[in-house]
Amino acid sequence: MAFADQRKRKVLIVLLSLLQVLGAAAYGGKKKSKFLEAYPMVFKFLLFWWCVFVFAVMTVYIIDHLMYKRFGPAKVVWKAEHIFKGASREELWTYLANPSKWSESDHPVLQTADVSMVCDIKDPPSEKENEEEDLAAKEEKPFEHPKKVCQSIELGPLKKGHGMILRHKADSGPQAGRVFCVRECSQIEEPSDGPFVLIMRTVEGGLGYPFLENTEISEVEMFPSEDGTVRCKMTGMADVTSRIFRWWASLQKDSQESAVAFLQSIDQVAVRVRQKS
């Protein structure tokens, strides 16, 4: 990694030096250069400002990279709270911690991804007999299978150590069936006199996943019922390498809005189920 970073810095330095030379050639000092003498002034004018633009973009990129090196990854943090009415805590908890009770037509997770449950999630062995063949297969169809070694199990209530593989929906085009992420349940508690707690950690990112692997952690707390209402709090955090990407992709805003929309969707699912029954 250090060697790759050094190569990137050297390439950037060379490109910046080249841009300075081209800018000076387009708008020379007292001694006019003959390098672009045959070109019209409009061309030199556009070339100069193009060099200024590229120089500015690369400067921002370098600063962003140096900030990552100096201060570490950028944080994305979100928080949401919701008050459920007319449903028991146990009923609402199934929509969060029991994938076997989820409905594809209603549940927000199944509406956006295909879900399969796994257990015994482990890192792959460091040495493989057919490493070249495995590498070729991954290059041919990247993200088709998770990198983690895990055992498939039937959908059921989440337990510590169990996880879910989220794949792009079958009707989502070229990315259909590719792994989006692998999430593992690191803690689940269902006490009778305290809040239900579910903590999920993303152990692998796939196609389209925006955060660094092993950095996204989400926690859901569902408190005991009071006067027919159930309060639910959801918090989460994750890391990204680029602060520019965090701003450009609106990760902070989108993550916050997604958390709020998720809890609202769970409320709507509970309402529809009660109406059907």
TrEMBL record:
Segments traversing the membrane: 42-63
Domain of life (superkingdom): Eukaryota
Signal peptide (residue range): 1-26
Keywords tagged on the record: Membrane, Signal, Transmembrane, Transmembrane helix
Name this polypeptide is given: Uncharacterized protein
Source organism (scientific name): Durusdinium trenchii
